[in-house]
């Protein structure tokens, strides 16, 4: 299995940026409540893209006769494609759940932001809930949004793989 150091570096950068944003959101939660709708809309669109990629990966491409000489070779190539697609599907599954958790946190944050707009009257426990929810939402939403920047390269990889073998 080939390790993509670029993707690992991007993931680390994404975690760092998301952590910084979450830290800021913890101490200024009311500044992030207005952006909840916007981020939820973007994440909803990304869920659709992720589901489309999963649908593409679930369809098996037909191998052209030029890529194998006998049934054993054909079976080996089919298994390689299947293993590669399963790894990509696992990644999409994980990303989908990041999106979904982000949407759930957006709903909670929106509720908390609307109900608790007067920060001076918040009890300490309620304030901690708002701050924690805001920080968690911003961390997961920004991480999934930043990590989604790899979706175009994933689509390109799938498309080129399908074109090469058909």
Description:
Helix 1 (5-27) runs antiparallel to helix 5 (124-147) and helix 3 (36-58) packs antiparallel against helix 4 (71-115). Helix content is 81%, strand content 0%. It is mainly α and 166 residues long. It is built from 6 helices and no strands. The radius of gyration is 21 Å and the shape is elongated. It has helices spanning 5-27, 29-32, 36-58, 71-115, 124-147, 151-165. The mean pLDDT is 80.
Characteristic key phrases:
mainly alpha
Task: Sum this structure up briefly.
This protein is an all-alpha fold. It is built from six helices and no strands.
Largest sheet: none
Give the strand content. Answer: under 5%
* Counted beta strands: 0
Using the alpha-carbon principal axes, give the shape.
elongated
* Radius of gyration, taken over Cα atoms and rounded to an integer in Å: 21 Å
Order of helices and strands: HHHHHH
Topology at a glance:
Elements: H1 5-27, H2 29-32, H3 36-58, H4 71-115, H5 124-147, H6 151-165
